[in-house]
Amino acid sequence: MKRLICYSVFLLALSAIFSSCRNNTGGVAGASDSTAKKGITKTAWGQSDSKDVFLYTLTNAKGNQVQISNYGGTVTHFIVPDKNGNKNSIVVGYDSLNGYLAHPPYFGALVGRYGNRIGNAQFTLDGKTYKLAANNGKNSLHGGIKGFDKVVWDATTVNDTMPLLTLTYQSKDGEEGFPGNLKVTVQYTFTDNDELKIEYNAVTDKATPINLTNHSYFNLTGDVSNTILNHTLQINADNYTPVDTSLITTGEIKLVKGTPFDFTTPMKIGARIDLVKGGYDHNFVLNSKGGSLQLAATLTDSISGRKLEVFTTEPGLQFYTGNFLDGKLTNHDGKPINQHSALCMETQHFPDSPNKPQFPSCILRPGSTYHTVTVYKVSVEK
Ligand code: BGC
To answer: Which residue among 28, 73, 133, 366 is least packed, with the fewest CB closer than 10 Å?
Structure first.
């Protein structure tokens, strides 16, 4: 009997430890210990292209954490408290590299060389036509077949006033059809104010289009079984860029006023989504016009009390309501990722800019430096 009691106590203790790892971290076991020390740690995470892959955990002074892999510069977990102090991850992601090697639709990925679509998978620059792989119908999407989301980046870390992860990647002349050797550096910082700051830099030796973004899928409840249609969104954009049936911008810039695209005041995402064929998957023309770091969008959720603010120096924001998610993939906690169970707010230049001279230019030339900044800031409203 005594032995049986001991055994049951042991089992109970084990299951308590297991469930606390799952609930608190939503990620690598033990990663989101609330007593975790501020800084950055590195865990071996497997291999891709015969290169070592790591998972980096950035912990701020509050013990909140962002986990990022140098495979695809992927943000796998963004672990912050809700209004009751319970921590879980507000982004869709996996606990192991294998999930990412199966090529999910850009979960948390660092997207490039050209984020979003290029019509007919080609563009003409300085009189020369460049052909890209058509990996999305007849169009090119998110950098092509093997974009920056599927390569292993070199990584360095700094444990200074803030945990800082620097990723670099040398994209070769002709890679995925793009001209020029492009050297890309991306810095991820996680501040004590729960801001994930992403700073993108690049230089090239030939003129090339460039449009780097992060493709995190957010669900502020931290539970993909809750739809994001109940989240409330405000976008500081009086205009958007309409698209054709293959989601290529038509070249027009239209007022959002009087349309389901009007998020200039806070609006429930689900309120008018039925009026938008296929759901939201559109570029919003930010009133800031890009250049300086300004508030682009504010997302709130009443279940968790969480608020997410997006600041960017980019002129555009792709608001995508996870229309093509279909429940076949499961989140790190085993829950199916259904349509509208997560949303993306991708800061960017406008889709198909290389073929739309009327849009802000996305061309980087030798001698210039590409530099953009985006900040995802989370807070709680009680
Ligand atoms: C695009 C969607 C696409 C998704 C995943 C988004 O950036 O706008 O159309 O389905 O990425 O690839």
So the answer is: 366
pLDDT tens digits for 260-292?
999 999 999 999 999 999 999 999 999 999 999
Sheet of strand 217-218: strand arrangement: 217-218, 343-348, 316-320, 281-285, 239-241, 254-255
Q: Candidates 320, 340, 347: which one to mutate for ligand 1, based on the most atoms within 8 Å of Cβ?
A: 320
Largest distance between two CA atoms of the chain: 85
Q: Would you say 31 and 71 are in contact if contact means Cβ atoms under 8 Å apart?
A: no
At 15 the pLDDT is 38
For the residues of 95-117, what is the DSSP string, one character each? SSHHHHHT--S-TTEEE-SB-SE
Global pTM reads: 0.91
- The yes-or-no answer on residue 346 being catalytic is yes
Catalytic residue among 215, 282, 340, 349: 215
**Helix segments in the chain, DSSP class H:** 2-25, 97-101
How far are the Cα atoms of 80, 143, 258 from residue 321, in angstroms, in the given order?
Answer: 22, 21, 20
Q: How far is CA 149 from the centre of its chain?
A: 11
CATH no. for 39-380: 2.70.98.10
Residue 242 is given by DSSP the state -
Taking alpha carbons only, the member of 379, 381, 337 closest to residue 108 is: 337
Strands 128-131 and 122-125: antiparallel
Residue nearest (by alpha carbon) to ligand 1 atom 9: 281
**Where are the chain's structural domains?**
39-380
- So what's the pLDDT on residue 160? 81
Instruction: Kindly state the DSSP code that residue 306 receives in the 8-state scheme.
Output: E
